[in-house]
Amino acid sequence: MQHHFRPRAAALAIATLFAGTTPAHADPDQVMEEVVVRAPKPVPLPMAAGTSNADAMAGKRAALSDSAQLLNDVPGVSLSAAGGVSSLPVIHGLADDRNRIKVDGMDLVSACANHMNPPLSYIDPSNVENLKIYSSLVPVSVGGDSIGGAIIVGSKAPRFADAGEGLLTTGEAGAFYRSNGNAHGVHASATAANERLSVTYNGSTEQSDNYKAAQAFKPGTLATWTKTGDHWIGGDEVASSSYKAENHSLGIALRGGGHLFDLKAGFQHIPYQGFPNQHMDMTDNRSTQLNAGYTGEFAWGTLAARVYHETTRHKMDFADDKLYWYGAAHNVAGMPMDTDGSNTGVSLKADITLSERDLLRVGGEVQRYRLDDWWAPVANSKMMSPDTFWNINNGKRDRFDVFAEWEAEWSPKWLTLMGIRSDTVKMDAGNVQGYNTMYSNNAAPFNASNRKKTDDNINLTALARYTPNARQTYEGGYSRKSRSPSLYERYTWSTNGMAMTMNNWLNDGNGYVGDMNLKPEVAHTLSFTMDWHDGADNDWGMKITPYYTRVDNYVDAQCLTTCAPNRFNYLKVANRDARLYGLDLSGFAGLGKLAGFGAFTGKGVISYVDGKDTSTGERLYNIMPLNARLTLEHRMGNWTTTIEEVLVSAKSQVSQVRNEIKTAGYGLLNLRTSYDTKRYRVDIGIDNALNKFYAQPLGGAYIGQGTTMSLNGAGAPYGIAVPGMGRSLYAGLSVKF
């Protein structure tokens, strides 16, 4: 594979835009060094469960290609495995659409019946500059239409030249290699800027073969009648786990007089991404993004506005490891599935300083989302012809939100925040049809029904913080959050077995059909955080957060007719009631310094969550068992070395209706070291250094090979959990110029 990134050349090319530009010589007091929206309060409410900047994330990038994995050390956050760049964050037991995820201010939506392109898959880890995670209590100003936490992701901010500096050119280039899966990739960025105008390019490309588990977890087999011909799949090979991804963006920013305008265009292409826990694979994904924003500082406060438009063209079929040629004569070529999504959004927010004590935030958001999901007819197949199958036709999901939030600093010890948000969600879908008349028993009543739905949702947040001294902080409160169902939850309509098999956004191997009459989910959350720390030297700190959530109308599942044990089943989404509770514990402590040997720091994160469907008494699906991440870090000069232990308990409490697979407990040892001069950086590490075999608790069911068009096809029988990756050595190099 050839990579053609030439970052220095790119920087010089961008610099030609500034040819002849004369450095500004205005009064230095009139030159704005940086434009950042800041509330006039010393510490914003609520405390985020986790924050991370570019320096903190630098050591992780060589070891991963999935931006969601940047969250793996945040208390209360776990990851539901999917494709190589498409993991789904789970916050306090709530996953996927239940969490609000924003990338550079954009509310991105997964345009896929199997949620193969979640929001975080649209940004490469090399382009992530900052992360903020709210795990329990989410301010209404952060977002709505969700009942879980919030993840706010920011890409690299525009850089400008200092006053009198003239033309600034800067950039970065890097590459990585990982042994397990033969994963490799490169990234590059380049900026040219003067004091007021900045132009930046960011790009990356990466790919990987199938990864291997630490030992065989199934028999080795010869895969026949696949798209690429016959080939051997080893017993330790996690089939359908390969991927290739490419991301590019070009940004322009203009600042002056307390104002910042930014415009960014982005493009992503994923030519293939296998999914070992899905019946289908991604065979193409193309996304274009146009994102414009404004930030202004005024005497009364700050104003922020954003408008964006994103389109996704997504395709699925059976990739290299799954049976492609069906029929007795092996002349039925797969099952192509196509999706076309369009997402347009506008947001406006004002932070108004009412007094030294009071800050008022007001704003609104509008989102217009359109989705078409169709399956083209397949030659030589009576079941899949002669017409196009419309899974969702002209799906519409529009949001209209307004909010108000009051933050008050009553004294140096007491702060409060109260907010209310109204979310109106309007949904509709057009007429549908199957491949032929055998599907009309579902299509006819669906087409005759009134499919327009309007949900009026209310969100509330109320919390307070008490800081008695510099060594302790206490924060607690209540939130009411609402989420309307997705288009797939409401409008997937066919109970045909093959059609249901292709609708699964949960990675559990079952087949699903939606329910047009689903009600919005409403979550009531109580949370309290105790934060003790060394006030002056930041030598140690410990944070404990217990929480409790009750969810009305939780979207769960029920058997379509009857369910059988020890197999995949056909399920229908259904409203239930649920409750979740848990505890997050995190801390760090300086362990001392030794002359000539540097400084040592210990870090730890422990998370526990319990989830139950209170309507049926069953356990909720995909609940992470008790887990811990313990780290010993050593710093000496430019060197940073880390020893990390990941400990996970057995998952014995599982969803019965889904026949969720139980997993055993395990422990992993990870080793890494880095040398960073700020000019260049070298990373070397070993993940799963002891090559321990383990099944991922949130990895879903393994269906990465064989006859996956059918629910219980040969070659991928029920009962195998997707295993984690065996030992992997990695190395990364990045250079700044």
Automatic annotation (TrEMBL):
Pfam families membership: Plug, TonB_dep_Rec_b-barrel
Keyword Transmembrane: yes
Record organism: Noviherbaspirillum autotrophicum
Name recorded for this polypeptide: TonB-dependent receptor
Protein's GO biological process: siderophore transmembrane transport
Keyword terms, alphabetized: Cell outer membrane, Membrane, Receptor, Signal, TonB box, Transmembrane, Transmembrane beta strand, Transport
Protein location: Cell outer membrane
One GO cellular component, as annotated: cell outer membrane
Molecular function via GO: siderophore uptake transmembrane transporter activity
Membrane topology, as annotated: Multi-pass membrane protein
InterPro entries associated with the record: Beta-barrel_TonB, Beta-barrel_TonB_sf, Plug_dom, Plug_dom_sf, TonB-dep_rcpt-like
Family: Belongs to the TonB-dependent receptor family.
Range of residues in the leader sequence: 1-26
PANTHER family named among the record's database cross-references: OUTER MEMBRANE PROTEIN C (PTHR30069:SF49), TONB-DEPENDENT OUTER MEMBRANE RECEPTOR (PTHR30069)
